[in-house]
Amino acid sequence: MDPKSTLSALRDFCAERLGPELAARYVDLARPGFALTEAQDPGEAAGLSRFGGRALLEPGTPWPTCDGFPLSLIAVLDTDAMAPWLGDVLPASGAGLLNFFYLDTESEQCDPASYDLMLKYSHYGPEVSRVIPARYAHAAETGPPARSSVFDPVPWAAVPGFAFPDTWDPAWNGFDVGPDADDMARAMPGSYVEGLLTEWSERPGALDSEDIAFGRPQFPTGSSPMLPSGEDPNRYHHLLQLSGQDEWYIGGDGGWMHWSIPTGALRAGDFGRAVPTPDIW
Q1: Which helix (H) or strand (E) covers residue 275, if one does?
Q2: What's the CA gap between 266 and 254, in Å, rounded?
Q3: Other Cβ atoms closer than 10 A to 103
Q4: Rounded CA gap, 98 and 88, in Å?
Q5: Residues of 212-247 as b/e, b for ≥16 C-beta within 10 angstroms?
Q6: Distance, CA of 136 to CA of 58 (rounded, Å)
Q7: pLDDT above 60 (res 222)
């Protein structure tokens, strides 16, 4: 289905269980995105989207570093392949290929010198991460410098849909649950709404995945995204969520990786303002 008809089907599904007014407010929180899974054959791949592999950069683009130490290429999103579903989320001129870099301190290949840098800047510091766009027609595979980790490439298939806020997402702040809700529902509107939605797994076009492009993030430990001090989470847009990968983890024992960006910067194509927002335990 196309985005408009999918959103309409979601609205009808929710209206049957929540009533039209509460359903309309809830569906307004939905954001378009993609569930990412390993492509089983080349025809399933979402363009050049993939975990790992080599960076796809325009000639002359420097490899990103943290205090001179090279970051590692974690993933690439081919937004040209995703643009029809995302509508006005992306800049009008397009975003091309997005290269996601991070300071590797956890994989078997990581250089021990990276540990001190992570202690200095933390997992949430903008210094340990970078999102670099590249125009599709100009991008070329770029080999990493020494001491940068290289992960085996895993091409992604991307299933479009709409993501709703996790129970702990700040998007619920101030959400109107209606006059019939009790004080507990007003304190925990996410739990209240989700409790009313039976047959949740049958939602048409709703994303339910551990690896997600755009849409909304999940917060499995119940935390909010770690944004610069004083920033309003609702003014940010989610870019990419990665669950624990076979080769790469954050936070030692585990964790989910997220990248976020101010919504205005996303629409302007200013990916230099993207920040890492990992969920670590």
Answers
A1: strand 275-276
A2: 28
A3: 30
A4: 17
A5: bbbbbbbbeeeeebbbeeeeeeeebbbbbbbbbbeb
A6: 9
A7: no
Q: For residue 66, what are the β-bridge partners?
A: 69
Instruction: Note the pLDDT tens digit of each residue in 55-99.
Output: 999 999 999 999 999 999 999 999 999 999 999 999 988 999 999
Burial class (CB in 10 A: 0-12, 13-18, 19+), 132: buried
Confidence of residue 107 (pLDDT cuts 50, 70, 90): confident
Element (H, E) at 81: helix 79-86
Instruction: List, for residues 194-217, the tens digit of each pLDDT value.
Output: 889 877 777 889 898 889 999 998
Helices (H), 179-274: 183-187, 189-196, 263-268
CA 63, 277, 33, 252 dihedral sign is positive
Nearest CA among 3, 2, 12 for reference residue 202? 12
**Among residues 90, 94, 57, which one has the least CA distance to residue 76?**
57
Structure tokens at 123: 């997992």
> In angstroms, rounded to a whole number, what is the distance separating the alpha carbons of residues 79 and 5?
22
Q: Which amino acid is at 247?
A: E
Tell me which amino acid residue 156 is: W
- Identity of residue 278: P
